[in-house]
Amino acid sequence: MATIPDYGRLGEQRVGKAAGAWGLPDFVYQPIEVDKGGARREVGDRLIWVGNQIAIVQVKTRSSPGDSEDRGRAWLNRHLARANRQINGTYRTLSSPPSDLVLRSDRGVEVPWDASVVTSYCGVVVVDYDRPIRYEPHLDQLKVATIAMVADDWELITSTLISTASLLNYIMWRATVGVTISLGHEDYLLKQVLTAETRGERAKIDADGLIAGRWVTTTDEPSDAVFGSMSDHQYAFVVNEMIAGAAEQEREFSTFREAHEYLHIIEFLDRIPPMHRVEFGKRVIAKCQEAGRTNKAQSSLLRTVSGPLVFVAHPGPREKRVHWLRNLVLARHTQLQDALSGQQVTTLGVATDPVPTAGRSHDYVLLRGQLQLEPNERTRRDKMFGEFPGEIEMFRATD
């Protein structure tokens, strides 16, 4: 007898794979079961958690190409309502969790759940249904603002934004902006938002709802809107290489005490918006080329939304590279801290080989908060590394 596929599980795997491949498997968490009220309750089909934001994802799958439109609509009504209840149940579990709740990421790393750091929740129902009909989902907004979209649109968004933080920002915006669109038309809204952002404008949403083709004036593809031009888009993947290096860093060169602490570095890098990554990548590659040409270490101070990033391309032995990176990051972090009069600063240092090889390695230093140096240490620091390069004001917090 032929094995009947579990379409629900296949749908969950499809959605998780899309979020983990184009977002990051480090921030996509697998479903788990917890004891709640004498029963076992599953915590989401997938959770996407970055910093203080989390999206609770429920997947509903149906394979019935022979459905009539009425049957399809009835199925959607029933299963979207069920998914909405499940999302709110997951919210209750996460907001009042058992003390030992541990999540497991798609990277395979166990991360203790800390409800105190999460301030924003949203829900997403991903519908994997092969019978397209014109259907506008209306979900009761209970404790968690929730939206619905088809699996194809979910895959489009995750592959276009290439950043889990950006994915969460988009979902949070969608869940709170108060607009309803037909299932299968998310690409039109995404294109409108990205095009407006590249022009420095606010996305204009038609008060009567969104109708495909009526209000979209741009012909740009989403990838063009994100990267600016396709000829330069490959530079954006420099950030991906840094992220992969942090996830795979050898323990002998790591300063992490717990396995999941590398997430702080990945979150710092992931928050670099897709539209900023091209210029970021160009500057990093230019430093690598300069270090390769001169056979001397080269560094650059880069401004990111998470804070200053010190990049080092170093052609020497790895031990020497790590030593120089740690001292340089300490110097820049404390210089900026002194100049900003006590403002909390987070500084990331990333170092690598100038020339790409199969064995290319990355090293990282992440400093947060106040670090005190004696006056003589400040003098020695400035003599060794020079004054802080660039405008201090660029790194001042604006919120």
Protein described:
With 399 residues, the chain is an alpha/beta fold. It has 2 domains: 7-184, Restriction Endonuclease, CATH 3.40.91; 231-395, no CATH class. 40% of the residues lie in helices and 19% in strands. The chain contains 11 helices and 13 strands. A 5-stranded mixed sheet has the order 1-4-5-8-9, sandwiched between helices. The protein has a 4-stranded mixed sheet with strand order 10-11-12-13, sandwiched between helices. A two-stranded antiparallel sheet has the order 2-3. Helix 1 packs parallel to helix 3. Mean pLDDT is 79; it is low at 1-8 and 207-230.
Task: Please give a handful of descriptors for the protein shown.
single chain, alpha/beta, Restriction Endonuclease, 11 helices, 19% strand, elongated
CATH architecture of the largest domain: 3-Layer(aba) Sandwich
Count of the separate structural domains: 2
CATH class category of the largest domain: Alpha Beta
- Neighbour order of strands in the largest sheet: 1-4-5-8-9
Strand segment tally: 13
> If you average the pLDDT, what whole number results?
79
First-to-last CA distance: 62 Å
